[in-house]
Design brief:
The protein is mostly beta strands. It is 0% helix and 35% strand.
Length: 118
């Protein structure tokens, strides 16, 4: 979930860690009341997965507020505590939202200069 114009809205795969307000913990009717777990929540929550996940997978934001197995980029918000098929509600542990940089970005050794000290 994210806050936009003073209202909670579903996140998408394009949202960044700074946009994440919390994770929706129960299905709700459009514009109806809902429960949201904040990133510092120390318990276990149910999250909807948009693709198959395995126990221990890092979970990143996907479309319509769902999560998927984190790839080389995206925003990680939880870790799966059980496997689940596409569309399932799986138990997960929330983590502080973090943007994952694409693996293609690397720092070449020649770009780093280390000065020797005595």
């Amino acid at each position: 979930m994210k806050l936009a114009e003073g209202k909670l809205q579903l996140t998408s795969a394009e949202d960044k860690a700074k946009d994440v307000f919390g994770v929706l913990t129960d299905p709700a009717e459009a514009a109806g009341p809902c429960d949201v777990a904040l990133p510092g929540f120390a318990g276990i929550v149910g999250v909807r997965v948009s693709a198959d996940v395995a126990d221990g997978d890092r979970l990143a934001l996907d479309a319509d507020g769902a999560v998927k197995k984190a790839g080389e980029s995206g925003t990680v918000v939880a870790v799966a505590l059980q496997a689940g098929k596409t569309g399932a509600l799986v138990e997960a542990r929330l983590v502080e939202p973090a943007d994952v940089a694409p693996a293609a970005i690397s720092l070449a050794a020649s770009a780093v200069k280390v000065k020797a000290t005595k």
